[in-house]
Amino acid sequence: ITFGDLFEFAVPLIQSEVVVVVDRDLLDSLTLRYTPTPIQSSRFDLYRFRISDDKNTTKEKTIEDTDTKVTFDALTPGKLYNVTVWTVSDNVESRPISRQDRLYPQAINAIHAIDVNDTTITLTWDLPQGEYDAFEVQYINSEGSYVQNITSQNVITISDLKPHRNYTFTLVVRSGSESSYLRRSNPLSTSFTTSESYPGRVEKFHPTDIQPSEISFEWFLPTREFNGIIKKFTITYGLE
Fold it and tell me: Where does the record locate the signal sequence feature (predicted)?
């Protein structure tokens, strides 16, 4: 074996920077961007790219190709993918460069309220396509505090609400975890109103004018205690 033979079959080098790009609005595609490996540092013919889909789809680009990105389509939303890049010389591959990333999950199309009363609302929604791990339901409670609930089911009951209040619920699909490429879908928000209930107790009920044959009263009911549409106030009285 001559020195020329050894050079011809030498394993090529790869000195490219590889970045994975995923888009929240392109749920079924993943793009690799890479910097060219300097041709002065290694002899090779092409770049080879492979993704861990059902077919281990492989794409190749020649060193003359100036478009330094590769896109894989028809993927599964929310799924974690491994991608591998090599330089190749006479079908001899370099050491691999591996990257991993997760596609964004598909968002929910609609939120439905299947049970509403004065203090609770039960929400449900259709399951998204692709892979997902949980659903995140967010809303602002009656005290103005942000509340976040996470469930693995496509139904949730929100309790401790106030009667006759309008609540806006925002639902986000989660795929992955904090330690494994967590991705959140685009949010979807819908508003629902709780049922009416008994009004609260009036405040500052006292007479303002007392005459021999009539008494005038004044009272105050805070708006937060309306719990519905107030149509009238009733005063009952009797002789002692």
Answer: none
